[in-house]
User: Which sequence fits this backbone?
């Protein structure tokens, strides 16, 4: 697998597994997921920024954020906001983060009409590089298909490309 190649597969019709190698040490890659000053630089697809990013990085803590499209070239998406809320379950630094990911509103109220997901991020040390494995479990195949139809795979590919670029800047 090349460094920039994102591998994806679906297991049991409702679990999306994503894998990618990053040319950076595990401690640094892990740090990118816990500190708002780093998340603001790379979270979200191309053309989207993170104007709101409140992180309480601990089991039981939350991350409330807003992604906003700042790229006029994205037409109808320009100016659109997408709010999310993460509730951290378990953190083993620098090896693993588990959390529930929800769509929310600006006040942090969970949008029950949208699928939530159970996410496990695993950070594997590979002699100065890091393999990141993201396992995202949905309540049903329909819920997984709904987010896939929203362009989630393209979005995460662009997001992780932005992470790779940010890692180059901070190394």
Assistant:
């Amino acid at each position: 697998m090349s460094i920039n190649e994102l591998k994806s597969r679906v297991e049991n019709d409702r679990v999306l597994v994503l894998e990618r190698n990053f040319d950076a040490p595990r401690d640094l890659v892990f740090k990118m997921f816990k500190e708002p000053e780093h998340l603001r630089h790379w979270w979200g697809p191309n053309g989207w920024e993170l104007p709101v990013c409140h992180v309480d990085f601990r089991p039981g803590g939350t991350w409330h954020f807003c992604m906003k499209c700042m790229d006029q070239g994205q037409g109808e998406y320009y100016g659109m906001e997408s709010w999310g809320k993460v509730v951290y379950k378990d953190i083993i630094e620098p090896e693993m983060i588990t959390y529930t990911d929800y769509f929310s509103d600006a006040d942090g109220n969970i949008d029950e009409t949208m699928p939530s997901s159970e996410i496990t991020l695993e950070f594997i040390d590979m002699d100065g590089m890091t393999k990141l494995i993201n396992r995202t479990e949905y309540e049903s195949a329909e819920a997984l298909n709904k987010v896939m139809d929203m362009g989630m795979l393209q979005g995460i590919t662009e997001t992780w490309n932005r992470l790779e670029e940010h890692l180059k800047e901070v190394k």
In short: The chain has one domain: 7-170. Helices lie at 26-32, 36-42, 141-149, 152-170. The radius of gyration is 15 Å. The mean pLDDT is 95.
